[in-house]
UniProtKB/TrEMBL annotation, chain A:
GO terms for cellular component: nucleus. Residues 764-853, 869-921 form the Protein HIRA-like C-terminal domain. GO terms for biological process: chromatin remodeling; DNA-templated transcription; regulation of DNA-templated transcription. Residues 405-430, 500-626 are annotated as: Disordered. It comes from the Eukaryota. Required for replication-independent chromatin assembly and for the periodic repression of histone gene transcription during the cell cycle. CDD domains: WD40. This is Protein HIRA. Belongs to the WD repeat HIR1 family. It comes from Canis lupus familiaris. Residues 407-430, 538-557 have a biased composition (Low complexity). InterPro entries: Beta-prop_CAF1B_HIR1, HIR1-like, HIRA-like_C, WD40/YVTN_repeat-like_dom_sf, WD40_repeat_dom_sf, WD40_rpt. Pfam families: Beta-prop_CAF1B_HIR1, Hira.
Automatic annotation (TrEMBL), chain B:
Pfam families: ASF1_hist_chap. It comes from the Eukaryota. One of its GO terms (cellular component) is nucleus. This is Anti-silencing function 1B histone chaperone. It is found in: Nucleus. Coiled coil: none annotated. Keywords: Chaperone, Chromatin regulator, Nucleus, Transcription, Transcription regulation.
Length: 976, 165
């Protein structure tokens, strides 16, 4: 056993109340008192484990510190997945932390120290319910629940899938509850309190199973915490502070009948913390000893107020080791490493000790399978993860298989070296936005910064967004959810992929995991050649790591630095930079003719409504010169002044300039038009703003400025639309206030208050006659030459401006907006003009214009589903994605999702589905006319896809037969 | 927990002449999209004696602010010398950057400003009346190098306090 006290782990002398090692063993968290608040610090584990790392100044020791707790932190606990950290403190709060992968290092501004937070952990939930200090928190074995206990005498069970939902509040203790532990199979939770009782609660109905008081009769409430622990085999529950013959003990409570016959004796003062080793051990088999298998046993560490620590094995009558005088004050918390060979102990004196055991001392740890077998034999079905996929076949039937595997290992090695080379530049990668470094941005910030004037003449700056947060929205949430995370960077909606993902990728044990995020977003720009195989990608990436890293660096250039409004997806519009020239070729004369025809058509149908069109038309018919247009308009408006009466009523703001019809009538009719659809309105409408700016794209730099009611000419207020594209400006005026605007590199469109939609080319030429929407606008969106309008009455229309056709015609979304308060939280348009909607309940739909139907995509919020459910959900999700990609006719997405899906099937060992896919991709080897098989799918050759799948299949030895079959058949086909 | 927190404030062009504008590069982080704009102000403390001499050099709206990290440059003209008490013109004073949301101030970052004559002679024997009180562009050259800013004492008072929305 080795003992180490890393002095650098401290809270500046303040007490440390809790310590917990991350499940992956790379870091640990401490919680305690900060300067004038509570403090949670995340530390790097490697300097504790290795002396070289401790001396290396380039290896950070502190990874992140969080001062958000208002008072002392009593407990920090990692979730079993390692994704979350929960902390509870004297401020009655529980905070749940999650790592923000999107953001590089930062310092705490205002703190004079230069300590940068290497990792960013941000609080994703604050759980408020306790009316007193929170003493202990504990994640359930499958991470579905989080329990917390408090000096308010209660235990609260939180729904960890849906914070801050409370599943149950366990009442029954009559004193401060100071410790919690879950049964490893998830059937019970136990709590120990100052009321001299230990209570066991059922998780089935959250009712009290038993209350144990006898061993605690003599106890006084003298300890700060009472951290009890359950053995990993589930047989024993060991309490903190108990008394036996007026000596302090740790009481052992048997699961069978809750008997209290045994205890750990020897500490001279009250036991504050008991912590079982997560592993179950068995005796090291010595040569020559009898082959009789020894009984597995557990290992337990006990810390006490007497400042000493004892480690016990359940097979021994005496403690394995007792360390006295380890600290100056009481031991507060203990945490084992996941491998069961190390423990971190923290103390009220503000220091931390690390103990390192060898396997000779503790024994051979059982593997997870053996452990779950023990659970299964004792308790039936175990919540622990099924490890069926690990039972690979032992016999290798085909040397090809081995070749593949070796090659893959080689690639992994290469990647590791490549990634280590990259890590040196990782810091700078984090500071790179939009392909330029933060330094470059800084230099040009003043020039780039968009500054406007608000209605009251004040300056308004649109800040430059230098990093986005993963606020758990659609695309990013999925990233973190499933184990395949690395390669999901190419998710269709997340083409704003990000540099921070990189380090993550290189660690994925999969060859194309790393190359994917860099290539995929690039591929969005155009059809990716079908023959461009993944294996080729990975070869490229690995053989020329130097070449792959720049491509990685250019990827972020897709990130839009300025995301005014929700134009987050407008980067798609950039994808077709060549197109504007095309649109402007359209002969203007023809256009005008069409326009007039349209207006004529409209007129007989509804003269009054068309009148609102015609005033829009005024500036349009003379698109040649701006000044001329204005002049003309002025003339018109003066004329109007004589005829019409400008209204004063502010609610009916738009003053209509009707040429053909009496103004009064129009006004009335307009009012009716505006008010009639009101009850049917479901979606929020943008309110009229005095002025606003919209960044369409940054490369080429293009933004739209709207100023409403700029000039009042003869009682008529004009609104100005200004568009700036790489310094070239054009502007136009509209007679109604502009509510919302959108643009792409091809088109700019605005929706006015009078339900009119006007579409202009990138050069400011009006492309379509004003379109009258059936109800007020809710959201407007442009991608390429497609314009999409979502009205407040939840009807959706999409036009292809370039071809002058309607793609989706006033489709009602009522069918998918079932439910009273459901709204469309996000809507965007794909490159092919297919609308994709994201609803407020997390579901996403896309509209298929040819089928005129909506198809749903599974909600992407998988991130905290229990493991068993996760498998099914992930599978269903991936299947949905594949189907959706088919619907969207997006070949590269289809390819991407199919590969992912296949990989998941391979990893999880779903043979039947995998076989089915292969069969479909392969088709009939021997050509027959009767076959219905199509050789391509969304423009990709199926057999090429299969070739891409093969290396994936080859990763799992279980599928060696399938692999060989497919490969042989492909070879036959090739030879033909 | 704060929804908006300041990550960094960099003072650009420091030191610089008295009459050159203040220029701060402000980076901040926002946890969730804000419905309305943030209002930032630069306040020059004319005299430590009284708030009466505080000059709001400029106030600017910043928005829209989606969740994420943002930065912008806040530039404001130099203070009006005629509003600064003569006795306080040369020496150390403070410039404050504040941020408010819905009229509620929640961040205040302060910097010391040291106004001094670059000319050693003038520094030794400062004129009774500060030179910028004389009319004309003369003052620029006279009061020359001023406004060396160092982060200090008035450090972020309520840094990261709650945005009340």
């Amino acid at each position: 056993m080795k003992l180490l006290k890393p002095t650098w782990v401290n809270h500046n002398g303040k007490p440390i109340f809790s310590v917990d090692i991350h499940p992956d063993g790379t870091k640990f968290a401490t919680g305690g008192q900060g300067q004038d608040s509570g403090k949670v610090v995340i530390w790097n584990m490697s300097p504790v484990l290795q002396e070289d790392d401790e001396k290396d100044e380039n290896i950070p020791k502190m990874l992140c510190q969080m001062d958000n707790h208002l008072a002392c932190v009593n407990c920090v606990r990692w979730s079993n997945s390692g994704m979350y950290l929960a902390s509870g403190g004297d401020d009655k709060l529980i905070m749940v932390w999650k790592r923000a992968t999107y953001i590089g290092p930062s310092t705490v501004f205002g703190s004079s120290g230069k300590l940068a937070n290497v990792e960013q952990w941000r609080c994703v939930s604050i759980l408020r319910s306790h009316s007193g200090d929170v003493m202990d928190v504990a994640w359930s074995p499958h991470d579905a629940w989080l329990a917390s206990c408090s000096v308010d005498n209660t235990v609260v069970i939180w729904n960890a899938v849906k914070f801050p939902e409370i599943l149950a509040t366990l009442r029954g203790h009559s004193g401060l509850v100071k410790g919690l532990t879950w049964d490893p199979v998830g059937k019970y939770i136990a709590s120990q309190a100052d009321d001299r009782s230990l209570k066991v609660w059922r998780t089935l109905d959250w009712q009290l199973e038993t209350s144990i008081t006898k061993p605690f009769d003599e106890c006084g409430g003298t300890t700060h915490v009472l951290r009890l622990s359950w053995s990993p085999d589930g047989h024993y529950l060991v309490s903190a502070h108990a008394m036996n013959n007026s000596g302090p003990t740790a009481q052992i409570i048997e699961r069978e009948g809750w008997k209290t016959n045994m205890d750990f004796v020897g500490h001279r003062k009250a036991v504050t913390v008991v912590k079982f080793n997560p592993k179950i051990f068995k005796k090291k088999q010595k040569n020559g000893s009898s082959a009789k298998p020894s009984c597995p046993y557990c290992c337990c560490a006990v810390g006490s107020k007497d400042r000493s620590l004892s480690v016990w094995l359940t097979c021994l009558k005496r403690p394995l080791v007792v360390i006295h005088e380890l600290f100056d004050k009481s031991i507060m918390d203990i945490s084992w490493t996941l491998n069961g060979l190390g423990i971190l102990v923290c103390s009220m004196d503000g220091s931390v000790a690390f103990l390192d055991f060898s396997q000779d001392e503790l024994g051979d740890p059982l593997s997870e399978e053996e452990k779950s077998r023990i659970h299964q034999s004792t308790y039936g079905k175990s919540l622990a993860i099924m490890t069926e996929a690990q039972l690979s076949t032992a016999v290798i039937e085909n040397p090809e298989m081995l070749k593949y595997q070796r090659r893959q290992q080689q690639q992994q090695l290469d990647q590791k070296s490549a990634s280590s080379r990259e890590t040196s530049s990782a810091a700078s990668v984090a500071g790179v936005v939009n392909g330029e470094s933060l330094e470059d941005i800084r230099k040009n910030l003043l020039k780039k910064q968009v500054e406007t004037r608000t209605a009251d003449g004040r300056r308004r700056i649109t800040p430059l967004c230098i990093a986005q947060l993963d606020t758990g929205d659609f695309s990013t949430a999925f990233f973190n959810s499933i184990p395949l995370s690395g390669s999901l960077a190419g998710t269709m909606l997340s083409s704003h992929s990000n540099p921070q993902l990189l380090p993550l990728d290189s660690s994925t044990p999969n060859s194309f995991g790393a190359s994917k995020p860099s290539t995929e977003p690039v591929a969005t720009t155009g059809a990716r050649p079908a023959g461009d195989t993944v294996s080729k990608d990975s070869v490229n990436a690995t053989s020329t790591p130097a070449a792959s890293s720049p491509s990685v660096l250019t990827t972020p250039s897709k990130i839009e630095p300025m995301k005014a409004f929700d134009s987050r997806f407008t980067e798609r519009s950039k994808a077709t930079p060549g197109a504007p020239a095309l649109t402007s070729v359209t002969p203007t004369a023809m256009e005008r003719l069409k326009e007039q025809n349209l207006v004529k058509e409209l007129r007989p149908r509804d003269l009054l409504e068309s009148s609102s069109d015609s005033d829009e038309k005024v500036p349009v018919t003379k698109p040649s010169s701006l000044s001329k247009r204005k002049l003309e308009l002025e003339v018109e408006t003066v004329e109007k002044k004589k005829k019409g009466r400008p209204r004063k009523d502010s609610r009916l703001m738009p003053v209509s300039l009707s040429v053909q019809s009496p103004a009064a009538l129009t006004a009335e009719k307009d009012a009716v038009c505006l008010s009639v659809p009101a009850p049917a309105l479901k979606l929020p409408m943008p309110g009229p703003q005095r002025a606003f700016t919209l960044q369409v794209s940054s490369d080429p730099s293009m933004y739209i400025e709207v100023e409403n009611e700029v000039t009042a000419v003869g009682g008529v207020k004009l609104s100005r639309l200004k568009c700036n594209r790489e310094g070239k400006e054009w502007e136009t005026v509209l007679t109604s206030r502009i509510l919302t605007a959108a643009g792409s590199c091809d088109v700019v469109c605005v929706a006015c208050e009078k339900r009119m939609l006007s579409v202009f080319s990138a050069c400011g030429r009006r492309l379509l006659p004003p379109i009258l929407l059936p109800s007020p606008i809710s959201t407007l969106h442009c991608t390429g030459s497609y314009v999409m309008a979502l009205t407040a009455a939840a009807t959706l229309s999409v036009w292809d401006v370039h071809r002058q056709v309607v793609v989706v015609k006033e489709e009602s979304l009522h069918s998918i907006l079932a439910g009273s308060d459901m709204t469309v939280s996000q809507i965007l348009l794909t490159q092919h003009g297919i609308p994709v909607m994201n609803l407020s309940d997390g579901k996403a739909y896309c509209f298929n214009p040819s089928l005129s139907t909506c198809s749903g995509r599974q909600a992407a919020r998988l991130f905290s589903v229990p493991h068993v459910v996760q498998q099914e959900t992930t599978l269903a999700y991936l299947e949905n994605q594949v189907a959706a990609a088919l619907t969207l006719q997006s070949s590269h997405e289809y390819r991407h999702w199919l590969l992912l899906y296949a990989r998941y099937l391979v990893n999880e060992g779903f043979e039947y589905r995998l076989r089915e896919i292969c069969k479909d991709l392969l088709g009939p080897v021997h050509y027959s006319t009767g076959s219905q098989w199509e050789s391509t799918v969304v423009g990709l050759r199926k057999r090429e896809l299969l070739k891409e799948l093969l290396p994936v299949i080859g990763q799992n030895l279980r599928f060696q037969r399938l692999f060989t079959e497919c490969q042989e058949q492909l070879d036959i086909l090739r030879d033909k | 927990m704060a929804k908006v927190s300041v990550l960094n404030v960099a003072v650009l062009e420091n030191p610089s002449p008295f009459h050159s504008p203040f220029r701060f590069e402000i980076s901040f982080e926002c946890n969730e999209a804000l419905a309305d704009d943030l209002e930032w102000k630069i306040i020059y403390v004319g005299s430590a004696e009284s708030e009466e001499f505080d000059q709001i050099l400029d106030s600017v709206l910043v928005g829209p602010v989606p969740a994420g990290r943002h930065m912008f440059i806040f530039q404001a003209d130099a203070p009006n010398p005629s509003l600064i008490p003569e006795t306080d013109a040369v020496g150390v004073t403070v410039v404050l950057i504040t941020c408010t949301y819905h009229g509620q101030e929640f961040i205040r970052v302060g910097y010391y400003v040291n106004n001094e004559y670059p000319n050693p002679e003038l520094r030794e024997n400062p004129p009774l009346k500060p030179d910028f009180s004389q009319v004309g562009p003369v003052s620029t050259s006279c009061l020359g190098q001023a406004g060396s800013l160092a982060p200090g004492g008035v450090e972020s008072l309520e840094l990261g306090a709650k945005v009340t929305s």
